[in-house]
């Protein structure tokens, strides 16, 4: 048998234990994440997903290391007889589109919102189905370790390699799902953060394709693809990265602003006053539209997923619209699996990941943005009024605390807040959630980080005063 490459040792090997996470691969370029490691992961992916003679779509973002890593992964997968379909520069949801439309497994090279020194891989089974550590990533990691130790045995016949462009088809498909042709004219500022939104926004919402022009005036910010992120990190979840967009929306007198993360699979909304719209409010808005559409098509058993950190209002909205809410843990691949299991029409997360049944159950920030534009453009209300109606309660946002002894912190929280303390109900769906019902209701969730000695606190309550009181008491217990 031929060997695709020799066994790898030392610094060039990288660190499989560090880079293979719960839902993806992520590491430091040239340090924990190296080309030989990527090649081994490519071969291991082809084997684990049984891709000999089958297609494997490979796309990448604008980071300097992404094209090189994509080629290294392709080399390993081809050695194990996978047929590579390169789609080149793309957003993560474009990668999902290619996976879904072609019924093929896929690999996306991106580190999402992380700084330029990072890169990673998001791997999908055919049909954009997610893979987690427990459903394939651990096995891929272990196979890759064997290949790094012993080399990659080449298959009798290597896989093929082709290149295609899916941008136009992706844009046309999204236009079919959300029709914006008849909305009132809107002026929107879009901050792409030098990420892949600079490619996808002009194609889907603008005039960079052969699609009919939409009644949208787009004011672009940082559309130049640049993996060094010269203006700010492509992480809109951090408030400091929204400041430029907030200022520009007000200066332009725009109807709203949109901010995409580095791989453009998440989208954040800013109202006409420059105020952020919570992802929970966006989830409620999109859920209402998707439930109404499914109902109009005759469905009577409609499910919508929300993770346990979204606002209580999301669950109330789903129920009021006549659908069944499904509460889940936090996690990309987990929610994809729940979308498939329940047949849910939509799923929303507090982190601005939005999942659609019509998009193979995968997340798509652009599609969520289009639903928001359709809502705003179909009536005369400003975004601030729509957002306020969908944000009736008070949230702390996520607060991280460094905690060396997590079990001791949990014990303090349970003693003080649980049935033996203030009497709150408890569940352990994801971390610990304390909840107190009735007129003065509140809930607090405390989850450990998967990678750092941190506890993450989220609190919501019916009043701001109650939210602050619960938040401060929980932080006191966590940090004691």
From TrEMBL:
Any single Pfam family the record assigns to this protein: PGM_PMM_IV
Coiled coil regions, renumbered to chain: none
KW Transport (keyword) present: no
UniProtKB keywords: Isomerase, Magnesium, Metal-binding, Phosphoprotein
Domain named Alpha-D-phosphohexomutase C-terminal: residues: 398-475
InterPro entries: A-D-PHexomutase_a/b/a-I, A-D-PHexomutase_a/b/a-I/II/III, A-D-PHexomutase_a/b/a-II, A-D-PHexomutase_a/b/a-III, A-D-PHexomutase_C, A-D-PHexomutase_C_sf, Alpha-D-phosphohexomutase_SF
Alpha-D-phosphohexomutase alpha/beta/alpha domain residues: 18-135, 169-274, 285-388
The protein's required cofactors: Mg(2+)
NCBIfam families: PRK09542.1
Protein name: Phosphomannomutase/phosphoglucomutase
